Amino acid sequence: MSRTLYDLVGLAAGVAFILALKGLSHPKTARRGNLIGAFGATLATLVVFFYANPGSSLPLNNLGWILGAMVVGLAIGVPAARKVQMTQMPQLVALFNGVGGGAAALVAIVEYLHLGPKATTAEVIFTVFTVIVGCVSFSGSVITFLKLQELMTTRPVIFPAGRFIIAATLVSVLGVGVWVVSALGTTPLLVLAALSLLFGVLFVLPVGGADVPIVISLLNAFTGLTVAASGYVLDSVLLIIAGTLVGASGTILTRKMAEAMGRSLFGTLFGAFTAKPQDAAGSGEERPVRSGSPDDVAILLNYARRVVIVPGFGLAVAQAQHTVRELADMMIAKGIDVAYGIHPVAGRMPGHMNVLLAEANVPYEQLAEMDEVNPTFGQTDVAIVIGANDVVNPAAQTSPGCPIYGMPILEVNNAANIIFLKRSMRPGFAGIENELLYDPKTMLLFGDAKASLTKVVSALKAL
Amino acid sequence: MSRTLYDLVGLAAGVAFILALKGLSHPKTARRGNLIGAFGATLATLVVFFYANPGSSLPLNNLGWILGAMVVGLAIGVPAARKVQMTQMPQLVALFNGVGGGAAALVAIVEYLHLGPKATTAEVIFTVFTVIVGCVSFSGSVITFLKLQELMTTRPVIFPAGRFIIAATLVSVLGVGVWVVSALGTTPLLVLAALSLLFGVLFVLPVGGADVPIVISLLNAFTGLTVAASGYVLDSVLLIIAGTLVGASGTILTRKMAEAMGRSLFGTLFGAFTAKPQDAAGSGEERPVRSGSPDDVAILLNYARRVVIVPGFGLAVAQAQHTVRELADMMIAKGIDVAYGIHPVAGRMPGHMNVLLAEANVPYEQLAEMDEVNPTFGQTDVAIVIGANDVVNPAAQTSPGCPIYGMPILEVNNAANIIFLKRSMRPGFAGIENELLYDPKTMLLFGDAKASLTKVVSALKAL
Amino acid sequence: MEPMAIVSIFVLAVFVGFEVVSKVSSTLHTPLMSGANAIHGVILVGAIIVADHSSTNLELGLAVAAIVLATINMVGGFVVTDRMLEMFKGNKK
Amino acid sequence: MEPMAIVSIFVLAVFVGFEVVSKVSSTLHTPLMSGANAIHGVILVGAIIVADHSSTNLELGLAVAAIVLATINMVGGFVVTDRMLEMFKGNKK
Ligand SMILES: NC(=O)c1ccc[n+]([C@@H]2O[C@H](COP(=O)([O-])OP(=O)(O)OC[C@H]3O[C@@H](n4cnc5c(N)ncnc54)[C@H](OP(=O)(O)O)[C@@H]3O)[C@@H](O)[C@H]2O)c1
Ligand SMILES: NC(=O)c1ccc[n+]([C@@H]2O[C@H](COP(=O)([O-])OP(=O)(O)OC[C@H]3O[C@@H](n4cnc5c(N)ncnc54)[C@H](OP(=O)(O)O)[C@@H]3O)[C@@H](O)[C@H]2O)c1
């Protein structure tokens, strides 16, 4: 295959990626967009097998190893992607991103070993960039995975003199980077990789759990840039275009996510340096709460004119989306005005609630975005909060010190009655107490969301 | 100045153009966008004076000629742009576009003469493309200018066997193009230019006046592509980027304009081939109309609850935008609900009415777009049509043969009363009769729009 | 520059051109057309380059004509666009 | 490829990347992130190229590891994105 044809196919794959991102930005075309992206990636992968790089010949050297490695990758990636539960999606995305960063770093290292002293300064600089950022992306993603999977604490990990250690690590990373560029050699490069991995860990540890998706998105953009840098070293227009696209769109997306959570990007990444660890269970004192029975809840709902359902992470855990839909349908049949109030960061990934409720075939019109539903709480008789906590916590507006301060919330506190379905008095993801649970107009229905909802549905039927 | 720096400045100018187009797409940033574009263009122009092209040295050869020519261009362009009346803006844009196309063709010709037999085939192909499209753009724009300036008929010019002549011209243009590529030489190139100029004339003649802005926009996109092609021949990234940007955005814009006018792009360009000339004054018979006095109009307005003002080209001609505002303010003071119904192609350029009314400081909220105002005509007591005609002509919806058939209109025929302010029974731009003038619920107030409005204002004051 | 680079730049610029104007409202059609029109006046740069290396009177004459036309296109285009947009100003504060 | 061409391609691709996602609604944040994530899995192409010209066992071993990781990233990414989006399907018809 001629170089021109090879490059043109690469460009076509780049165009497919542009169309993919474009498609993914609109609900109607999102799925098709993803398929176009997959098509472009397949095309790009197939075509390398038919083009002999300078100094090489067809079929590719090490073909068996290459195909074998791809089969292994498929055998790991596909089942993981197929079987993951919706609640664990963010972790998986984080991991996939991390391995991508790792792959880019490895490619850069191999190419560096291969080029040896023939490498131009520009190539070495791009290699150093790829190794640093790829390794940071890899180890950072692993930490976010551990946090989201709750294999480690979801709260900011602050250690004494933390910010000095981080700064020192960063300085050594950069120092070793300069060393690699000036002296060349395998050892400095491996030291660089090791230090970068360490920096990735240190960089993500102090990030509060609630900000983790922002960090994933940022690391995703970083990985894109490493791919673009590899494209320079390997002289591939496709990698340059694809990597840059991901880098740029990922940056915008990160900013948008941060906005949706009401956080400044800067604060997310560096604010944790100064944050003090929060006390998990608040003051710990026992305060009275009003808890009710499924019948109490059913009665309240039966006489309401307008009900807003606020789903959260607990709904996803309990897989209660179908039951909640049943409840909503019953209320609608009774002539009650029902809407779902969707917080952009309810659950553990942006749009999590939309996915879950769409899975349960909840009509799109019943889903109201935060800005839409907030002004209506004044006319709402009952707000029923199902497995959500942080996204309705007024502390986000009232207590400047707390980790979610500044995040816009669903203002259920303006509704006439509030019902909470949760299992205990434990706080949500951000680990801070929710005063609303103690509010006189709040009623708590303890138990797993799905079980509680089933009981409420039966009680409502009986009325 | 080094080549790298020169190229980087070029790229910066390209970025400025991207930002300019982006800015121009939003009302708030439009003006700044235009200034950014002007800045980029200035930068790009200045920098050529400091870079010696291969085989040349600084200062540029023929510097006196170059500067002199620029001064002449400034002396023509700036006053023309400053003094033109708002009603003649479209003509001017057409002319500016045409001279741009002409410049691109000239540049290609000069470079061709300069390169002589050294030119590569690719360079010759791009040269041929630039000469053809640049010349078509030039002569086509001149014809659109003549049409808009009403120095010639605004209606489609259909001549016997027209489509065969056009097709034959196109074939010869392409044939000569191939001749140039294969044989090279100055004569074939000049023949090519001449034939292309002819084709431009023939191509635009059959286009109906109402479609002229679409054609201008299309020619604008074409000129962009010629600039990109020149960029290839002259090895300038800046010209490639700038030209491609204009080509691509111009294409989208053309499609959007055609949509706004309810025309298919294809039909606009080729439909006229088959159209039959329309009879200007309709059947010519004298039918009764109801004409009223300024007092009648004032009384009708005084007792209305909702009035929609529909401005058109005549308002622009009469420069009545300030008077109409005065009238609207008076009605609002009387508690009447007043809105302006803005048709996208009212006037002689898209957005013409917005420009005029903005000039008169009409608050933005009072301007209603077509889709917004159409559903409200049922609740409108009086629709007052000021110097508009085609944009309210129901023939666009009812008579398939007519030149404006398919264009969405402002449905004033649904209002309880219609008032027309015009000077005569003459038709509008498209040259077709408007049945609405004979409608029993229509009242005509003959006279210049500004004079009539002034009288209505006094009459209303007196009430 | 390599053909592949030029093709890539062209394709990407097409996408940028499409995307940046894809949301324009009909109010701004004319100023946008006029602004884009002014941008292609940057062919002035090309006209200056060819005027610089013109070696015959014919070449120079044509190049000078090109400079005049391109300057009219570029400067006139930006000025007229600014004039149009100035009229919107009142309402945008 | 010339540095200038690469810089131009980079700058234009940045604009394309910015523009295409600039209107995304928060509902689609996660699928978009996941889809973009899958796209950078195309580093697989780079991994295959370096595996092809690996000359030592160390190089080959690292390259094979890169292929495994990149394949996971690419294929897993597209599959998981499709799964997410499948759930929206019901309402979009
Ligand atoms: N969407 C994102 O992109 C994203 C990503 C990462 C983090 N976050 C963060 O996650 C939080 C999301 O807020 P949220 O209100 O959705 O969740 P949340 O604050 O974590 O609260 C979830 C609540 O659900 C309850 N729960 C858990 N399992 C349950 C079950 N089986 N049945 C009933 N209740 C159950 C828990 O209380 P019990 O234990 O008492 O039952 C908990 O209070 C925010 O802090 C956000 O910043 C969001
Ligand atoms: N906006 C664009 O982009 C664009 C560009 C080119 C063409 N067009 C076409 O132009 C037409 C626009 O429709 P339109 O309704 O705005 O205009 P129109 O159909 O051309 O009607 C204008 C009316 O204004 C009257 N008039 C002229 N001077 C007047 C004055 N001084 N005082 C009072 N009335 C005066 C004329 O009637 P009298 O002579 O009896 O007074 C004429 O009937 C459409 O056909 C459109 O397709 C639009």
TrEMBL record, chains C, D:
Q: How does it sit in the membrane?
A: Multi-pass membrane protein
Keyword Repressor included in the entry's annotation: no
| Top enzyme category | translocase
Q: Which reaction does it catalyse?
A: NAD(+) + NADPH + H(+)(in) = NADH + NADP(+) + H(+)(out)
Membrane-spanning residues where?
Answer: 32-51, 58-80
Keyword field contains Amino-acid biosynthesis: no
Q: Which GO terms describe its biological process?
A: NADPH regeneration
Q: Quote the EC number.
A: 7.1.1.1
What InterPro entries does the database record attribute to this sequence? NADP_transhyd_a_C
Per the record, GO CC terms?
plasma membrane
The protein's UniProt keywords, in alphabetical order, are:
Cell inner membrane, Cell membrane, Membrane, NAD, NADP, Translocase, Transmembrane, Transmembrane helix
Molecular-function GO terms, alphabetical: NADP binding; proton-translocating NAD(P)+ transhydrogenase activity
Query: Primary place of residence?
Result: membrane
Which intervals hold domain NAD(P) transhydrogenase alpha subunit C-terminal? 7-89
Q: Where in the cell is it found?
A: Cell inner membrane
**Descriptive protein name:** proton-translocating NAD(P)(+) transhydrogenase
